[in-house]
Amino acid sequence: MLRDGVTGDWIGTFVGHKGAAWQSRISDTGLLAATGSADFTAYDHYPLKGDIWDPQTGECLHTLQHNHIVRAVAFAPGSSTSFVATGGFEKKLRIYDLRHSPTEHNSSSPTTNSNNASLESRDASSWEIGPGLHEGPIKSIIWGPDQNLIVTAAEDKKLRWWDIRQSNPISTFALDGVLGGCELSFSSNGRKTDSSILSVGAGKTAYFFSGKYPGQLLSSHKATGEITSVAVNLTENRFVFGSSNDTFVHVHDFSDGSEQNVYKGHHGPVWSVSFSPDGKLYATGSEDGTIKLWKFCNEAYGLWK
To answer: Residue 291's beta-bridge partner residues?
Structure first.
């Protein structure tokens, strides 16, 4: 479902999945949307799909067939919308080249990674990076702002940084709890590598890594409950997270981790938190079946006059 990011108004619904949609992403250009799902059919297993949509019309442009649940999708950063990465219960990190015809993507056995090959120089419709190295389902994929760098967060409690031109991770970090969420945040001046932070919620800890230097931990802060999702606002020096132990939205100081505010409104645990690109608004998604928009600035904004 597509909604206006400021008002929350319904714009349209992508119809086609026959199972739960686990994740959705919109490309940097806004020209494509990707969804990862668990679609049930008449078979005794989950013939899993990752679908590519035109967000203007709702038309499904590509279906990327998998053998199990797709939990994570990510577009290559920048103006190119030709490449998308997927991951899930198969424990495989795949990259698909959308320049190939949709029929070429039906194979569930992509080629292995070719060392030193750039994205644009490859001729395969899809390929796998680091075969056999993930020891649990891939729950999140972060791609960018460097197009050669991908981060995977898996249920084996590990973060892995990948150079897509290599077959092994260039950095690995062991988390001290079950992975909740993983997002890349930018300052309000745009998608610049120097101003990006990878925020990760795992167990009762919020981790913050450099978006430029793989594996470089900048800081971490403890919470009283299990963190399901965390997002940081670099301009305001704050981070926001949800927890599976309550129904609140928690706002903390990014420098020292101190609690600044606790907001009530949801009637179930908050599973997803994300800031708008300008940092003046953040959205929360809850088990109560609602998405709430919260103003994060003093001036009038959108519906808040």
So the answer is: 285
Q: Exposure of 220 by Cβ count < 10 A (0-12 exposed, 13-18 middle, 19+ buried)?
A: middle
Q: How far is CA 62 from CA 49, 54, 69, 108, 111, in A?
A: 10, 10, 17, 14, 19
Burial per residue of 125-157, b for 16 or more beta-carbon CB atoms within 10 angstroms, e otherwise: bbbbbbeebbeebbbbbbbbbbbebbbbbbbbb
pLDDT tens per residue, the chain (305 residues)? 676 677 777 776 766 666 667 677 777 777 777 887 765 222 222 334 455 656 667 677 777 888 888 889 999 888 666 889 999 999 999 999 888 765 555 545 556 555 566 666 666 688 899 999 999 999 999 998 888 999 999 999 999 999 998 889 999 999 999 999 899 987 655 555 567 899 999 999 999 999 999 999 999 999 999 999 999 999 899 999 999 999 999 999 999 999 999 999 999 999 999 998 889 999 999 999 999 999 999 898 877 76
Rounded to whole angstroms, the Cα distance separating 84 from 110 reads 13
